[in-house]
Every structure is written in structure tokens, then in C-alpha cells.
Amino acid sequence: MAGNDDSSKGVSRRILHWRSGCKSRGTPSSMFSVTNHQSLISRVQDAASVLRTIIRTTKQSSSPANFIMQYILQPTSRNDFFVLCYAFPALSRTPRILDTAPTLRSDMSDWNYKGAQVESGSKNVLNIASSSQLGFVELEFKTGNLLEYAIRNLPFTGNSCGCNAKLEETVKNELKSFMGFDGCVLTAIGYQFNLVAFAAMAMAASNCEETVFLMDTGCHNSMYIGAFIALGKTKGKVVRWQHNDAVDLEKKLQHIYGNYDSTVSTGRKNVWVTILGFYSMLAAVPCLDEIITLKRKYGFNLYVDEAVSFLGLGRTGRGIVEFFRDRGSSDLGMDDIDMMGCTFSKSLSSMGGFVLCRAPLTSHLDASNLAIRASGGGCVATVSLIRTLQILKKPALIKQRLAQLRQVSSYLIDGLEARGYQIAAMRGSSTIALFLDNVYRMLEFLKHARTIGIICTGAAFPAAPRGRPLIRLLLTGLHTPADIDEILDKIDQVAKSIGVRTSKRPISQSGKTAPDTNASDSAISPSEHFSSTESSDDVDASILAVCPEPICSLNSKSATIRASGASALSKFGLGAQGARWTWGTFSAHLSLERLLRTILVPVMSLYLPRNMTLDSMETMLFPDPYTGILSIISQNMESLTRRRKKKGEKVLMLLPDTSGADVRDGVAAARPDESVKVRWYTCRPDEHGWGKSLQSILQQEYEVSSRKVHLTLYIDLKLLVDQRRSRISENGSLGCLIASELSETLKALGQFWPPLRETTPLLSVTFILNDPYMFSSGLSSTHALISTLASSSLGVFSSATKPSSTSRFLLFGSFDSLPYASGLQGAFCIGSQHLVQKLLFMSQGVMYTAMMLPLNAAMVEESIKAIISEPSSDSDPVLSTADAKMEIALC
Q: TM spans, by residue (predicted)?
């Protein structure tokens, strides 16, 4: 275990020693024996658990044979193994739903996947699963008053008008001053900050340089995705080095530079070493002192993802450098880091992210961020900006809670070690990893812990070391010694009930007493303690001075929408958390998904044969449009199985050549594979329309691939309409224009896709349809899109071709242009169950990101209800389903 060493070298040596002890020895011979050290009983339990969930999940599939072949008999990629070993078991459990804010004590309930709440109702649990290290998810003093004022009166974001410019600039200056950097950009969601940062790093290379990202193998998914996207636009490569192994890093550096003279090497290559400030899955810090020694020798640049370490490590919360300086490494400084990134959804307990950099990189960082904003990335919500300032302007409160966190962290570590549990921990951090012997026992641990009243999260390979599934215990600066005693007692109960073996107790518990949290921490003087409501009010007053002017006149519908947001704030707080399969989903998000399905499935049903239903349709949310499209495109570019490759089958993805960064970055984010090919079709107005370009590409690829093609077609109605807007007056309406133009495209595909013939030229077709006009047109654009697709010869809704088999589709929409509440964040998709479930458990937009704020989801739901309740009018057409069907027929 990592101890409380006095020197950073001692810390690093102990981390490396711990890492070597955890490393898997050898590759497992089967998918069930995940480690060579498992007992026979443990292996049987793992195998039985996986087989049970395979059977249950296969029964739920509308195409069991294809499902078994693709995900059970032919797992060919790491993602498939992940689905098999972890997502299947997760799918077999009902998801956990948050009914309140994720505070120290939270109310949770079980829902099934169709949104019906289980009768058992909610249960109050002790929360050790929240990433809010300092507990700021609970609104201290009267801070909720200013947040509620912002929701009711201020613009939700500054997306189009720039009205939040002064507030954003104040947040940037506060962050730059707090961390000691020259440049700063803000991102709408946490996942984006690494995408922005890596693009800026690549831009920093001169024309003659090659960019090299030297990445620790423990880096977060968003860092690798950011690197792949950045290198799709410039020459360069990704080189991985063994986690926390400075010796291996130096070997890679020697290979890259070719000599030891940094004065000669510097400038030839744009080299960036990238690390995490804290590896939360392993509860370990990086070997920062050794990395900086190498930096001074070779002259590379250093990037640190401080998502967990910002306001989580160090005496004042300034992250990993301060953590090492507190332990005696006085020669390390913030100027040793060239760029750092962080999310708002952990210690700042809201939604968004930021990147800080040195002066020479500022222009590159600004350009990178603007590109993503222009493609649907959006801006940080006003309430998140306000909440960030409320926290950063209270340094004494930050110190106070960090001191509390250090005390309860050490107390829990001592208690677990005394009981003989196998753990990994770093004293002073919020995370403790408790290792178990197999995935089955990890899932049973989570289930039993929830039953007796504590909530925690688990992880398995590839998120955790192979053969080392773990339970993550996440503490905050609000936990008390009494909470720790309760946690220890309940962990003992769970361990006993599921058969966790502990080693012989190395020390007696009699010498361990609870820390006195009333006494001042040695790092804090009594005068630094923050306890004044008046001081908090003064902070809020200073923040209000830089906020935009309130909106002068709100109509009744806008006021009702904003009231729903204020109500959600009082119930859930700001509440940003991780993916639903780890921590849980807010009931506000699930309610919105259910509403979208309730509205859109009947629209689709209008155009179905009588003997066909859409029971297999599913809906899911994304935090923002950019990340949603990126995730959908990259996920649909997954490689084929080996069997299909041997048969000569290919995946052909057709994308508009005028697509923005969201689509192009999705292509760059996908894992390259020879069985997947991307072609860009012309989407410009001419006398032949855009069907001719598609027809030409299909003809070429059809012959080259020996007629063994799986086609994925992406259609963006915005690209179609914007270039033909002058024709709306000719056709009479937006819906008629969409129907007319889309018919040309589908006609080009029709001759290659007769699904009812015995010989099918295309093996399968997947449609990805982006309808940005869905709500602003009162669903008329969606009616036109679906009806045109249904009436084509492709048979998407044919009674002989179900949407979830050989012909699939996804309908994508966003919430940023809702009529009565502009600037709301988020997006969604609805479509074939097979596609949606893969996105839900495997895509970047859900697996590795926090979802939109619960209050944002509540406001979106109220906005949609306001739209669909309106009578149709000429000025703002909101069509009934009958009217829409009549209009499309006339077109």
C-alpha cells in the first residue's frame, strides 16, 4: 500500500512497487478465467454469471442468431470482451435511479429499462460513489438562491448572443490565477476538454515537425480519442509507455530523439508526454518527479489531465504538483507543466470543463475550442459558471474540506488494512480501490451493499487491471469518522455474505481511534476556517455583478419551463455524475427519454404496415450534439468479425462532404480497420441533386467489394435544407422540401437494395438521420423524413424487414434550438434497439461522460410538452399527426 511518505521519491517508488505486484502474469486462456490466480470455484462463478446473462440478453434480442454470432461466438475486439464480461452482467441488473441529489445520503430506486418504477420504491443510502471529492454537490449556506435566480431570469448559456462573455472571462481569470497559467478556454462538457487540448498540442507543431503523443497506458479514453482526432489532421503518432514506469518512458524518449542532447533534439519533434494527475481506477498518483527530471533532460512538453486531482490533491487543492511539493519535492513547480485540463463534474460538482496553457499555446487552444463549439459543442451553462466561482472564491472552505478528506481517507485506509482487505490507496486522496477475485463477486458486492444501505461502484477489465475487478470507495470532504465506522461495518457484512476472503489481520484494531475532525488540521490555522453565511453572501454578490442582465420579458410558457428547472435544482442540485451503469441515472433524465419515445414512436407508427410494431425502438440521451454525433459515427465504424472478413464483406460508410467537425472527428476517433471504408458524397445543389453522387460511389464500391457490402448512410437535414432554402417557397413548406430532396437520395439507393428479392445486393443498410428542425418545426420535418423513408423501395419499415435486423436506423435530434428555452444543452437518438444498446454501453458519449444537468433535462421536457400542446398555425406550424400525414401525401 502507498504510505504517507515524506518524499516524492518514496511515493513514486512505492507506487511502482505496488504496480508490479498487481500486474497480470500471462494471458488468460479463456474468457472466463480472467486471472491465473483464481480458484476453481471462482472461475466457475465467473463462467456461470456470464452464461446466465448471455442467455437472458440473447432472449431479449429480436435477432438472437445474429446477436450470438457477433457478441458471443465471435468476440474480436476489446470492446466485445468488455461487453461479454461486464456490460452483460450490468444489463441484467435494473439500473439505479437517483431520486435526489447525489449528496452524502441519497435516495435511490430501481427502474426497468422501459421506465416503469419498481414498486419497492426508493431507499436512502450512504453515498461512497460520488466523484464530488469536496462535497460541493451539496449547496452550502444560501448558494442555491443565486443559482435559482439564474435559472429563472438569466440566459441558460451564451451560445449565440455572447451575453455571458463577462461571466466567462471572470471564470477564466479565476482559474488562471488559481493554477498559475496564461491561457484558458472553457468547454461545455468535461469530455471535450481533452479533445480541445490534444488538437491544440498538434497545432503547436511547425510544418516540418512530427507530433508524438507519449501516453501512459493508464490515460483516460478521452485522451486517446483526442490524440486520434488530432493526428487525423496532422502528421504524427501515438506511442504508449507502461503505466507509471519512468524507465520505459525514457526508452521511448531515446528512440524518438535518437540522442541525449536536448539542445539538438528540441524543435525537431513536437513531443508531448501525457499523464493523469490521479489514476482513480488504481488509486495511484503518477511518478511526476521522475517525469519532470526526464522533461528537463529531453525538452518535451508535459500535459496533465487533472480531472480528479484538481481540488482533490494538495493542501489548497492545486493538484498533483502541490501534492508532491507538500511531500518535500520543492524543486517541482507549476511551470513544469505546459498544459492541463479538468472537468467541472467532479470537485466543482456541475457540468463543463476547462484547459489551461502557457502563453505560446493560447492561440492554438482558442482555435481548437472554436472548431468544436461551431460543430455543436456549445458553451458552459450559466449556472455552472456561477457555481465554479462560488467554490473558487472560498479558498478557506476548500482547505477545510481537503483537511477533512485527508483525515477520513487515512482512517478508512487504516480500517481496511487492519481487517485484511486487499486495497490500493493513496493517503490524502478520495479514492480507495478494494480488489476482489472475480467479476461475479464484484457484482454481488454492489448488489448486497445497496441492499444494506451503501452505494459504491465497481470496475472490471479493461477499466481495471485484467483479473483484478475492484470496488471503488469514493470519499468526500463531508464524510465524518462516524460515516467511516458505518462503511467499515457494512463492508464487513457484505464481504461475509458473498464469501470475500481476507488475509490475516496484520495489526490490532485496538490502537486505531477516530481522528478528531473538530481539531484544526495541521495545515490550516484556526483563522482560515470558513463558516460565515455572510461571507458566502458577499461572494454571491460579487458574482452577480459580472452576470448578464436578466431577460426583460418572459412569456408564460418560458416562465413555466424555467420554474421546472428551479424545481429540479431544489430536488437534484446541479447533480452532474457519471454513466448510469456505474453510478446511476437521475429520474429527470429517464423521464425525458420516456417522453421522447412516447412522442416519436407514434410518428413512426403512422407509416408502418398494420402487422408491424416498433416495440424494439429505444431512446438515449447525449450531453451535447457534438459528442452525440461523434459517438454515433465512430461506433458505427466498428470492424466486422473475422468470419465476415474472410467472406470478403465490407462496411461502407457514406458521409456528406460538407460535414462539420462532429462527423469528421467521429471518423478520426474510430479504430482503423481494413474492413471499414469511408466515402464522402457530394451534398451540393445542382440539376441532378445529390443522388447522382451517391449512385456513382455505390456503383464503384459495389463492384470492388464483390457485392458484399454493409452500408451505413448519414443524412443531415441541415446540410440539405441550408443549400436549398430558396426552394422552400417552390415546394410550399420545409416538410415538402425534405420529402422532395430525400426522395432523390433514396431513389439512388433503391436499385442496390431490393430487400424482398431472394438475392440481396446490399447485406444490410443502416440509416443515421440528423433532424435539427424537429422541435422548431413542430415535428413536421420528422414526419417528412420518416414518411419518405417508409415509402421508398428500401423497405426500412417493411413487414418483411424489421428495423432491428437487416435494415436499421437512428434518428438524432438536439435541444439547443427549442423555441421557448433557447440554449439548452443535450441531444438524443431514437432507433433500432441493437444500435442504441451498443451506443449506451460502448460509446464515448455515454460511457465516459457525465450526462446533462438534471435541471436541464427537466427544462427540455417541459419545453417539448409546450411545443406538442400547441395548436397548429401558419406562423409557427405544430402539426398534428393527421395534418402531417396529409401534407406529406400532397407533396
A: none
